[in-house]
Write a structure and sequence with these properties.
Layout (H helix, E strand, L loop, with lengths): L10 H15 L2 H5 L12 H19 L13 H4 L3 H4 L5 H14 L3 H20 L4 E4 L4 E4 H23 L8 H19 L1 H9 L12
Antiparallel strand pairs: 1-2
Helix pairs in contact: 1-3, 1-7, 1-8, 3-6, 3-7, 3-8, 8-9, 9-10
């Protein structure tokens, strides 16, 4: 199975998604619960908010980086999620380190997170206007089509916005169809890779024959 959104991504929708993230992170309910454990076990609300804010910042920093020559291998969208860090599960070492780093960043406070998201939001239109064809993903040492990389960040925004909203009992942001389509398409493709065609089709259309879970992660 192959999957790519290169050349098909609605880039203005990415900016709108980042604006929704800003609105969620800025809520007083998030500030009030900052040091409390979030819906992601082992991670504070503040740590989850900082991880969510980081996704827009990654788009700005990677797409806006100076072009460099690299012989890094190419990776498809699905290759990105075949990286060992994803396969080890949420209790794996890389996820533990991510939670610890995000919680440490959260000690800077709520307003810093709000400001960081505002800065990324202001920079996004420029970096998305003329992105490079590919972007180096440093933590994987591989190159991806820029639009496909942005889809991975949109997936993080959508999933973790749900986590953050659930953590403080507020409505989940209503993302555009132009954001949900690539995110849900990616999640569905990953579920097929992990569980097989039959499990996914039955869960979506024949619940009486569905397995217990088709989670892609």
């Amino acid at each position: 199975m192959t999957l790519s959104y290169a050349g098909r991504l609605d880039r203005p929708a990415v900016v709108r998604a980042a604006a929704l993230v800003h609105g969620l992170v800025a809520r007083t309910e998030v500030e009030a619960a900052w040091t409390r454990e979030s819906s992601c076990a082992g991670m504070t609300v503040g740590g989850l908010a900082r991880h969510l804010v980081a996704q827009s910042a990654y788009v700005v920093s990677l797409l806006g980086a100076e072009p460099t020559s690299s012989d890094a291998p190419a990776a498809s969208l699905l290759d990105h999620y075949a990286h060992p860090a994803w396969l080890e599960g949420v209790d794996g070492e890389s996820h533990r380190l991510l939670r610890e780093r995000s919680d440490a960043q959260a000690t800077e406070g709520h307003q810093v997170a709000v400001s960081l998201q505002a800065e990324a939001l202001a920079a996004l239109p420029a970096v998305l206007a003329d992105p490079p064809a590919t972007v180096l993903v440093p933590w994987q040492a591989r190159r991806m089509a820029s639009d496909d990389f942005v889809v991975t960040r949109l997936l993080e925004m959508v999933v973790h916005s749900d986590d953050l909203a659930a953590s403080v009992d507020v409505p989940v942001p209503a993302f555009d169809d132009a954001v949900l389509e690539p995110v849900l398409g990616t999640l569905t493709a990953l579920a097929v890779v992990r569980h097989g065609q039959d499990a996914v089709v039955r869960t979506l259309s024949r619940p009486q024959r569905a397995p217990g879970s088709i989670s892609p992660f």
